[in-house]
Design goal:
single chain; 189 residues; mainly alpha; 52% helix; elongated
Length: 189
């Protein structure tokens, strides 16, 4: 606790007292300048471990297989993959995917794969033709409705046949077989 000195003339004593207090307070110690240290020699990075071959005749433990399900790897250029895609797209979109795959794959030189693409394109054209004929005959008054209904049933049967062929096509290709359509007409050769 500090007490104030009595006031004196013109405030000179107060100034002297304040100066005395400032001189009486300790000053913080100034850090002395340390001598500069010499940098240490650079440390080389640790050397990478070198592979050492086991001595001749030594037993080497086999590597453990990875745990879990391993899906078989198929390459993108596997013709069975393109045949599968072609058939299943053609089941639902008829002749257009069959035409595209046939145009792309016919010049690649794989005759067996080309045989599958041509068979699918021919069957897709038959399905498309049956639907078109069904629409045309359906426009005829009276008798056209009955014939149109029969042709619509035929197009549903052809749809089922196409699904069956699409399910069997990849296996037939891999086993060296031929396209397995129930019937097919060679429109495109």
């Amino acid at each position: 606790m500090t007490t104030l000195p009595p006031e004196e003339n013109n405030g000179q004593a107060a100034d002297q007292h304040a100066a005395g207090e400032a001189a009486a307070q300790p000053t913080p110690a100034q850090p002395e300048a340390a001598a500069p240290e010499q940098p240490a020699a650079p440390v080389p990075p640790p050397a990478a471990p070198q592979y050492q071959a086991p001595p001749a005749g030594a037993y080497q433990q086999p590597q453990q297989p990875q745990q879990g399900y391993q899906q078989p790897q198929a390459t993108a250029t596997d013709p069975a993959n393109t045949i599968t895609l072609n058939y299943w797209l053609s089941v639902f979109f008829t002749w257009l995917p069959a035409l595209i795959f046939w145009m792309i794959e016919k010049d690649k030189g794989n005759q067996r794969a080309n045989e599958f693409h041509v068979a699918n394109f021919n069957f897709s054209l038959i399905r498309t033709g049956v639907v078109v004929v069904g629409w045309i005959i359906g426009m005829i008054p009276y008798i056209g409705w009955i014939l149109g209904l029969l042709i619509w049933i035929a197009s549903v049967v052809l749809f089922v046949f196409h699904i069956m062929a699409a399910a069997k096509a990849p296996d037939a290709y891999r086993k060296g077989g031929h396209p397995e359509f129930v019937f097919n007409f060679p429109i495109i050769k």
